[in-house]
Design brief:
It is built from 18 helices and no strands. Among the domains are: 72 residues, no CATH class; 113 residues. It is an all-alpha fold. α11 packs across α13.
């Protein structure tokens, strides 16, 4: 502090001295205007010239004083970029992990979709190495999601353990991306979309699939109307609006298929390949929407057939425990009373008219969960089968929604979906947990989409279908034409799309395997 005061005093004295020695009415030190090049004469004379050094001295003294203060207090004038050895804060690492999960999940999904088109064109044997690479990347990514779920379940405290989990999430996402990047060049050579023959064959495959989906759409629309009339709006709510989104994706696919042909005719194979991939992505999502309606119909029918037997089975089990319920101290009596009320309400609702049989089964399963005590996974009877059906329907509903809205869906929703799948596939499965997690994943994904906006509202002069393509993650939203399309590969491949559309020649000696 002494250095600070001394420096400021010296600068101030130097500034005041000219005013004490120059005979003017206005002291020079009180002039508000700072000296500029225009106020100084050619030979440096004049009052402004007299102020240059004093002002510099004051500024220098202030800078020295400020630096000394900042150094003592440990602050810095402005944030500095992190060096390579600087560890991010826990909050920063949390955000990095969430972003890595979203990015890599998109890579895996897009890669799986493109492999499916290559399989339809070239056969199973040709794409087997790349199918395996996608499966391996998906397995690694699942481990990352489960680590993230553990992080979310852990809650506050024990920052070291939480940081270790987040580091694991980021590391696994990186490894998953590398597994896809390692085979991306070989996959590009296999498809050869930059060559006339490869692109023409791929276009034929995409157009054939497009025509098949367009033909299914009216039947699916009629089916959805029939399901609504038979089971009620609540029963078909998970797939409501799907036919409209099918039409939206197909309109977009039509446009991009046409542009792929036009770009090829103009001698631009790279742009033609991008348009083709965008069309394929939209076609794949249209298929997901249509299949979801068909699957939901089958699930509703199975659930409706299962409700009567589930009611009978539940009543039989309750009758077995009811005699001893009053004497037990574990709350069995209240559980039995609650289950009796739920079963009566389900019977009344089923007799009243259209109802949601999946929801009816869910209520039965949850009301009688205390009888199994293990999430329904160990119950070999009708209640166990009902619990499995409810969980499977919830997971499928969430999975389809996330897949077709991934441009807006957060890491939180994707993490819950991955955890739900893990609970469903466990031995024994935890059907209650799987159902709970899957329903939460769907709720979070729908929240994300509401925040994102209307999926089919194309604005700002965009062509029809572009809004849905962005929401679905078919287009990446950056660059011309709302960005390049998603496709096979990881982050390095996406960062260098030219490597995908114009692959390097194969090394001498034949076709390579997994690259480095």
């Amino acid at each position: 502090m002494a250095h600070t005061v001394l420096g400021a005093a010296a600068g101030l004295m130097w500034l005041v001295l000219p005013g004490m020695t120059i005979s003017t009415d206005v002291p020079v030190a009180a002039r508000p205007n700072r000296p500029t090049a225009r106020t100084v004469s050619a030979d440096g004379d004049g009052p402004a010239a007299d102020l240059v050094l004093p002002v510099a001295a004051v500024a220098g003294a202030g800078a020295i004083a400020g630096y000394g203060y900042l150094r003592r207090t440990g602050r810095r004038p402005r944030p500095r970029p992190r060096g390579p050895g600087t560890r991010p804060s826990l909050a920063e690492l949390d955000g990095l992990a969430a972003g890595s999960l979203v990015e890599q999940d998109d890579h895996v999904r897009a890669s799986r979709e493109e492999v499916a088109f290559a399989r339809a064109q070239l056969g199973d044997a040709a794409v087997e190495p790349f199918d395996r690479a996608v499966r391996d990347a998906a397995t690694t990514l699942t481990d990352a999601f489960l680590a993230r779920q553990e992080y979310d379940d852990r809650g506050p405290g024990d920052d070291r353990a939480r940081r270790r989990l987040l580091d694991g999430v980021v590391g696994r996402c990186t490894a998953s991306g590398r597994e896809l990047d390692a085979t991306a060049a070989d996959f590009a050579r296999l498809r050869a979309l930059d060559e006339d023959a490869g692109r023409t064959a791929a276009l034929r495959t995409a157009e054939a699939r497009f025509r098949a989906l367009a033909g299914r759409t009216p039947d699916t629309e009629a089916l959805l109307a029939a399901l609504t009339a038979h089971y009620g709006p609540a029963a078909v709510e998970p797939v409501t609006g799907y036919v409209e989104q099918v039409k939206d994706r197909l309109v977009f696919a039509t446009s991009r298929l046409n542009r792929a042909h036009q770009s090829a005719d103009l001698g631009d194979p790279g742009r033609a390949a991008d348009h083709l991939r965008a069309a394929e992505g939209a076609i794949a999502q249209a298929d997901v929407f249509l299949t979801a309606v068909d699957t939901h119909r089958a699930d509703l029918d199975e659930a409706a057939a299962t409700v009567p037997s589930a009611l009978s089975g539940a009543e039989t089990r309750l009758a077995e425990v009811r005699p001893d319920a009053a004497s037990r101290a574990d709350g069995t009596r209240s559980y039995v009373a609650h289950a009796d009320g739920v079963l009566a309400a389900v019977r009344t609702g089923a007799a009243a008219g259209p109802h949601d049989p999946v929801d009816a089964l869910r209520r039965i399963v949850r009301a009688t969960a205390f009888l199994a005590g293990d999430g329904g996974g160990g119950d070999p009877g009708v209640l166990g089968a009902a619990a499995a059906l409810v969980a499977r329907v919830a997971v499928a509903s969430a999975a389809g929604f996330v897949a077709t809205h991934r441009g807006a869906v957060s890491a939180e929703a994707r993490t819950r979906l991955a955890a739900a799948r893990e609970r469903l596939a466990a031995v024994p499965p935890d059907h209650l947990a799987a159902d709970t997690l899957a329903r939460r994943a769907r709720e979070l994904a729908e929240r994300d989409v509401r925040t994102y906006g209307n999926p089919t509202a194309d604005t700002a002069g965009r062509a029809a279908g572009v809004g849905g393509a962005l929401l679905g993650g078919v287009l990446l939203g950056t660059g011309p034409d709302d960005g390049p399309p998603a496709g096979y590969g990881g982050p390095a491949t996406r960062a260098a799309p030219a490597a995908r559309t114009r692959p390097a020649p194969a090394p001498l000696g034949g076709h390579g395997g997994r690259g480095g």
